Amino acid sequence: MSWRRFDGSLERRWDEFAAAHPAGRMVHLSGFKKAVEDTYHFEPFYRAYVGDGVLKAVFPGFFHKSRIYGRKVVSQPFSEYGGILISADIKAEEKEEIVDEFCRMAETALRTKKFDHLEMRNPTGLSGTVSPRLQTRRLFKYAVRRLEDPETMWKALDAKDRNIIQKARSYGLTITEERGEESLRRRFYPLYLKTMKRLGTPPHPLSYFLRLARYLRDEMKVFLVYYRRLPVAALIGWAVGKTVHITDMCSDAAAFFLKPNDFAVWEFLCWATERGYRIFDFGPVRYRGQEIFKKKWRMEFLDYSYAYLSLNPGRIRNPVSDSGGIMAAAPEIWKAAMPVGLGRLIGRCARKEIGL
After folding, report:
1. DSSP codes, 253-269
2. At the topology level of CATH, where does 2-139+304-318 sit?
3. Which of 24, 98, 203, 207 is most exposed, with the fewest beta carbons within 10 Å of its own?
4. Structure confidence by residue, pLDDT tens digits, 228-282
5. Which parts of 200-339 fold into alpha helices (H)?
6. Domain boundary assignment for the chain
């Protein structure tokens, strides 16, 4: 029984394993690997633990070289999640042995490639597993809730939040689930570029979303909100196993008075419930505005952490919590000085550098 490299012969079993795991997200699936390789050309570090012909654990990751954050294996870049997934039906002692063997194997890979660290982003698949080799950094919280029938969820909302959704409907907002390259290109992506500019965040290239749609077609859910036949908001969610997860929300600032984001989240919750999904993951809560928006949906807030395996612990730089100097000012500079068109051109390079 040992860790082995991912290859095509493992792809089907790998994806079935990741989708069935409670901590599995779209970034654990093989389609995400293909999208990142095709778009950003990162070298993959994907390993599977196989014993007696049975897949017992998986680790997805990429070698990432950054002038700012150093040389490390990241699980997963451009994502809020990653890390090892270990089968829930094996004993605690065997889980610890699997993690220990992984750490030894990963340390060898880091030395061979002359990299310093391995970084796992909120590796909830390791919950309950302890390893003296891993360091954990708590950063903030993330929001999740168990889905209920729409009527129960509706009653749980505050009256003012129900009123917001009712007003959105009265304005004539509609929402549709859409597929295909044309919708991503002509409706989602222009809204996305405007939103990234407003937030001071470098955008992914359009090709990244097109490749996600190609390689994760069944899991990717794209919803567009329309007002008078014009798209005013968009949401990208993911359905993996029994969990749904939102990664991208964008909207036209001129339509904020219509509350299209509230409308989109509510409709997505109803959509997921009606199709039998059980858990809604709303991702990290980094600042007060996110906390207020996510709390209204009756979220439970859990600790969000990064885990590190490091050959040089004193040189760990976290891209979320250790960004000072020019990196701290970068969002305001981007908002004030970066034209949308130019931002689109250099966004890929900026994203590749920071790995977020």
Report:
1. GGGGGG-HHHHHHHHHH
2. Aminopeptidase (3.40.630)
3. 207
4. 999 999 999 999 999 999 999 999 999 999 999 999 999 999 999 999 999 999 9
5. 206-215, 260-274, 288-295, 326-337
6. 2-139+304-318, 148-277
Helix-then-strand count for the chain, H and E: 12, 15
Q: Which residue has the higher pLDDT, 259 or 342?
A: 259
pLDDT over 70 (residue 210):
yes
pTM over 0.70: yes
| Reported CATH class of domain 148-277 | alpha beta
Q: Fold identical between 2-139+304-318 and 148-277?
A: yes
d(CA 312, CA 300): 35
| pLDDT tens track for 179-209 | 999 999 999 999 999 999 999 999 999 999 9
Burial bucket for residue 336 (CB in 10 Å: 0-12, 13-18, 19+): exposed
Which residue in 225, 218, 231, 301 sits closest to 266, CA to CA? 225
Measure the CA–CA gap between 284 and 143, rounded to whole angstroms.
Answer: 6
